[in-house]
């Protein structure tokens, strides 16, 4: 694993898959908040429930719109009828919460006992009158953020396939549009329509906090590009229309199944771009969308330069430093690319799963960034082995390790700076204006340790680093 | 199927992992899908462990589903054995692997042929036992394994220690204040002139286990963890087991008297009465506190208690017997051991509640409107919602319940800590009420005035009447919320209708 000479192209490796990450059912934590009229029912065991309860921390106390359908011994041995049991619970949910959609999250257990959720759902849906979307977000097949991917892929099939009646009304259906048009008169709206270039409808996919949705939508509006809809929308009832030939673009690197579904099932055209993470990524993302629609982007270069100038105080702290991604949330390639642009050397990019086609543009951009910044190309390690990675970390002594919480404290105790990777999935990191937030996270351990550096408290374990 | 989103006790494998990772140089390998190693995060975050949690997963993925684990589990065990040379590897089944019904025992036997350390399979059924029961069973299993191993090799010591000695059984990682309790118990034993023969599982090496029979008696401070191991030792070696939790002044004295009885029966000649008297009256402050006028003010105040068996029972007795507080109901989520709990608290509360449904607990709290709650983190949040103070006395717990400062619940220092906890919960509640009665904090007034002048709002007669029906301790809050609601919408008069509209708007 030592870098003998500078490799010319990215090097891909695959290890044992013995690594720590969150279970993909964790996606309910952010998706139930994003889709306001949804209810997520995780069909699993106590283990799943215990994970959610602990991973979601205080959110659990806010009467969340999710619950466990906890399987008991009778369910496992089929002494109880799956359909009847699910019907009973879903009726209770309907009575108590009256959601517009119930999302069933299939888990490892439902896979193993082969509970036919996809088969049961349409039948039950007909009976109780609430749409039931099935997503198999289990730890047998997926890691962490891929959970969102399975949910959105399932939702993509629920998007209406024809714009309902008049054009004006379609605008009304759209949450973002409504938000942007809020309080404006009809003629103003018409006026605004003319600000857009005439291009085929564009739908973006990926769940982001509403402020970020607004920011990215406005960013595209500046180029005359209209976002016709967003998967997911704020409400299930506001899912965007997807007609054959619509263009779609992803905002997150872990959405490859959703992209595939949109292309194959909904006959949409995918715009393969780097992801709008960091000012460089955001610019490349917009430029790629513009180029597809034959638009010459305006003012992006200045915009990017301006953002870089604004974060120089943070970039200064990490320039020339090294970073090691242990890998657990699939944001790694985009973050690595951004940090290379910030002047860091990336030693290793661990990643749970690498879709080279969906991430092609991002990978090319990482390679280009390394060449332009004159730093060695990192090895991309798919399905990493945490034990081996720790040996490499001890050897390489990176300035920063981006890792899960299981390793963070033990590494800190051994004098190695860490940043908890999960924060990147919950913080707002997309678009131009959130570049500072990424750097805020990345530099935090370095800034903290700058404050403590003279105290001589670097290594706080007795024996030499041993796992 | 059961609809649930909160559980008090975790799944079985958590109990096994807690016991295994409490030992020194014992590694646990979970037969589990990706993401089930969440235990490592909890241990690293909650108890701020400096060392890597000795738990890894032998990942169950699609291939395992199709073809079985085959060599994978064995390879993972032997690999870990070679990498870290643990004394013992505990193969831990999870809910997923228990449905796969692979012959894990066979994997263990095969791995044992190659591994230098010992290998065992944790014997727990995921669908029948919870975290606490599984932990208890795993500890017993490990103890038995090493006792039998030593016996086979003829290494089992036959004699007792020269001076009276004790095994403290049941201190574990992620246990509520366990490390502080352990220190306090060791101090107590030192005061009593008793040697600590072993503390298990926390910090113990499996090699020490063969020495367990040397102790004069076993002390099991917590009801949930250690009894099975202690009963096993009693059956094998006749070592008496003391399972009186020394929590609270009276119970601590009872525990010490029992120790006296047990060791005197084995030929020691000790009299601890003087020590108990001295500690109770002058060293611990708890007895003096119950006599002081502070505590007098608490007389007859209503409280509810909920938690695991050990802590809920002990707190109920302390509140009722030592402080004169009226415990309306006491409850436990240890349903499997409910009879014990009922028996312990029946004289100290009006009602006993046995459930693991947090909704039922919340309703029961709302129903009795106590002045203070003593419960888990879940009850703390119920308290927040109802504006009732809560002292956290049992797991499930958050990171703030792993204090760095010395905060035992057991022994004489424990009585001091518990007194503070109880008293602070009640006075905070009192303070809140006084503030409500006298019109709240200054800051609240300023905020109200800052938004708009007071005069533009008028409470109509029926509005005021409805407001007065609202219980005193939330009335101020309701009034503020309603006024804010009215101001936001430009209402001048606040009628009963507006009040209820406001209530609906905040989703109360």
Write the layout of secondary structure elements.
The complex is a heterodimer of chains A (467) and B (508).
Chain A: E1 11-14, H1 27-34, E2 38-44, H2 46-55, E3 66-70, H3 73-76, H4 82-97, E4 101-106, H5 108-112, H6 117-128, E5 132-136, H7 146-156, H8 167-173, H9 175-181, H10 186-193, E6 202-205, H11 210-221, E7 227-231, E8 247-250, H12 256-264, E9 269-271, H13 278-292, H14 300-310, H15 312-318, E10 322-325, H16 332-341, E11 345-351, H17 360-373, E12 379-382, H18 386-396, E13 400-403, H19 405-413, E14 418-420, H20 422-426, H21 435-452
Parallel strand pairs in A: 1-12, 2-3, 2-4, 4-5, 6-7, 6-8, 8-9, 10-11, 10-13, 11-12, 13-14
Helix pairs in contact in A: 7-12, 13-14, 13-16, 15-21, 16-17
Chain B: E1 2-4, H1 12-22, E2 26-32, H2 38-46, E3 55-59, H3 62-67, H4 71-84, E4 88-93, H5 95-100, H6 104-114, E5 118-121, H7 131-153, E6 165-171, H8 178-191, E7 195-201, E8 217-219, H9 227-237, E9 241-242, H10 249-265, H11 273-283, H12 286-291, H13 293-296, E10 302-307, H14 309-323, E11 326-332, H15 338-345, E12 351-354, H16 358-368, E13 372-375, H17 377-386, E14 390-392, H18 411-437, H19 442-451, E15 458-459, H20 461-469, H21 472-489, E16 493-494, H22 496-505
Parallel strand pairs in B: 2-3, 2-4, 4-5, 6-7, 6-8, 8-9, 10-11, 10-13, 11-12, 13-14, 15-16
Helix pairs in contact in B: 1-7, 4-6, 7-9, 8-18, 14-15, 16-17, 18-21, 20-22, 21-22
């Amino acid at each position: 694993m030592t870098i003998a000479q500078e490799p010319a192209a990215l090097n891909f490796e695959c290890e044992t898959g013995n690594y720590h990450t969150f279970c993909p059912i964790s996606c309910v934590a952010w998706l139930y908040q994003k889709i306001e009229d949804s209810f997520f029912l995780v069909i699993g065991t106590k283990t799943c429930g215990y994970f959610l309860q602990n991973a979601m921390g205080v959110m659990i106390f806010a009467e969340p719109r999710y619950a466990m359908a906890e399987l008991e011994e009778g369910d496992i041995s089929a002494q109880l009828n799956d359909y009847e049991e699910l019907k009973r619970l879903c009726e209770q949910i309907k009575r108590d919460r009256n959601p517009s959609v119930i999302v069933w999250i299939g888990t490892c257990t439902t896979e193993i006992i082969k509970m036919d959720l996809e088969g049961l759902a349409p039948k039950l849906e007909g009976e109780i009158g609430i749409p039931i979307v099935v997503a198999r977000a289990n730890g047998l097949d997926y890691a962490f953020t891929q959970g969102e991917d399975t949910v959105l892929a399932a939702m993509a099939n629920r998007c209406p396939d024809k714009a309902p009646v008049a054009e004006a009304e379609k605008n009304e259906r759209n949450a973002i549009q409504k938000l942007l048009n809020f309080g404006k008169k009809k003629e103003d709206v018409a006026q605004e329509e003319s600000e857009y270039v005439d291009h085929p409808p564009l739908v973006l996919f990926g769940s982001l906090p509403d402020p970020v949705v607004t920011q990215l939508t406005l960013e595209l509006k500046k180029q005359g590009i209209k976002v016709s809809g967003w998967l997911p929308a704020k409400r299930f009832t506001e899912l965007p229309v997807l007609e054959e030939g619509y263009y779609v673009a992803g905002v997150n690197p872990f959405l490859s199944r959703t992209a595939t579904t949109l292309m194959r099932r909904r006959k949409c055209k995918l715009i393969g771009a780097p992801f709008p993470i960091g000012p460089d990524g955001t610019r490349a993302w917009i430029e790629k969308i513009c180029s597809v629609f034959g638009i010459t982007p305006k003012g992006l270069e200045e915009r990017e330069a301006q953002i870089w100038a604004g974060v120089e105080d943070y970039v200064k702290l990490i320039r020339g430093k090294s970073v090691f991604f242990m890998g657990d949330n699939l944001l790694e390639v985009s973050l690595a690319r951004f940090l290379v642009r910030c002047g860091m050397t990336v030693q290793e990019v661990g990643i749970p799963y690498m879709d080279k086609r969906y991430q092609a543009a991002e990978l090319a951009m990482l390679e280009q960034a390394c060449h332009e910044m004159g730093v060695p190309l990192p090895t991309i390690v798919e399905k990493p082995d945490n034990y081996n990675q720790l040996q490499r970390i001890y050897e390489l002594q990176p300035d920063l390790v981006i890792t899960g919480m299981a390793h963070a404290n033990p590494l800190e105790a051994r004098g190695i700076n860490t940043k908890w990777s999960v924060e990147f999935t919950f913080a707002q990191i997309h678009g131009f204006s959130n570049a500072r937030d990424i750097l805020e996270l990345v530099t935090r351990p370095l800034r903290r340790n700058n404050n403590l550096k003279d105290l001589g408290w670097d290594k706080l374990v007795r024996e030499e680093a041993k796992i | 199927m059961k609809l649930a989103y909160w559980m008090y006790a975790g799944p079985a494998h958590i109990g096994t992992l807690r016991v295994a990772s409490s030992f020194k140089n014992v590694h646990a390998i979970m037969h589990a899908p990706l993401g089930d190693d969440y235990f490592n995060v909890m241990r690293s975050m909650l108890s701020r462990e400096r060392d890597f949690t000795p738990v890894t997963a032998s990942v169950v993925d699609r291939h395992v589903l199709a073809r079985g684990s085959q060599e994978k589990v064995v390879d993972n065990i032997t690999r870990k054995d070679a990498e870290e040379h643990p004394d013992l590897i505990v193969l831990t089944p999870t809910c997923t692997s228990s449905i796969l019904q692979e012959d894990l025992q066979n994997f263990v036997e095969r791995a044992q042929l190659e591994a230098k350390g010992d290998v065992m399979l944790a014997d727990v059924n995921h669908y029948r036992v919870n975290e606490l029961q599984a932990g208890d069973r795993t500890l017993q299993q490990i103890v038995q394994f090493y006792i039998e191993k030593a016996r086979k090799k003829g290494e089992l010591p036959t004699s007792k220690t020269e001076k009276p000695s004790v095994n403290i059984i049941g201190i574990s990682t992620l246990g509520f204040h366990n490390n502080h309790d352990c220190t306090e118990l060791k101090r107590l034993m030192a005061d009593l002139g008793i040697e600590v023969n072993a503390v298990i599982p926390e910090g113990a090496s499996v090699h020490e286990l063969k020495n367990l029979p040397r102790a004069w008696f076993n002390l099991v401070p917590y009801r949930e963890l250690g009894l099975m191991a202690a009963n096993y030792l009693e059956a094998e070696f006749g070592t008496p087991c003391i399972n009186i939790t020394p929590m609270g002044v009276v119970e601590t004295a009872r525990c010490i008297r029992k120790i006296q009885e047990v060791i005197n029966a084995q030929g020691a000649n000790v009299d601890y009465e003087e020590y108990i008297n001295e500690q109770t009256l002058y060293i611990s402050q708890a007895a003096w506190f119950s006599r002081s006028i502070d505590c007098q003010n608490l007389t007859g105040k209503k409280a509810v208690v909920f938690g695991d068996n050990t802590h809920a029972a002990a707190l109920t007795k302390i509140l009722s017997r030592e402080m004169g507080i009226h415990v309306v109901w006491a409850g436990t989520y240890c349903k499997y051991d409910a009879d014990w709990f009922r028996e312990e608290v029946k004289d100290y509360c009006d009602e006993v509640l046995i459930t693991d449904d947090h909704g039922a607990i919340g309703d029961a709290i709302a129903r009795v409107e106590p002045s203070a709650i003593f419960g888990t983190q879940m009850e703390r949040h119920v308290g927040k919602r109802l504006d009732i103070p809560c002292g956290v006395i049992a797991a499930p717990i958050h990171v703030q319940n792993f204090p760095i400062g010395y905060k035992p619940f057991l022994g004489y220092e424990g009585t001091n800590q518990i007194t503070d906890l109880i008293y602070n919960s009640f006075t905070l509640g009192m303070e809140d009420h006084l503030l409500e009665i006298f019109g709240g904090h200054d800051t609240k007034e300023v905020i109200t005035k800052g938004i708009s002048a007071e005069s533009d709002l008028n409470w109509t007669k029926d509005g005021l009447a409805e407001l007065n029906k609202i219980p005193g301790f939330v009335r101020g809050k309701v009034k503020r919320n309603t006024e804010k609601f009215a101001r936001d919408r430009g209402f001048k008069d606040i009628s009963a209708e507006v009040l209820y509209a406001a209530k609906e708007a905040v989703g109360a």
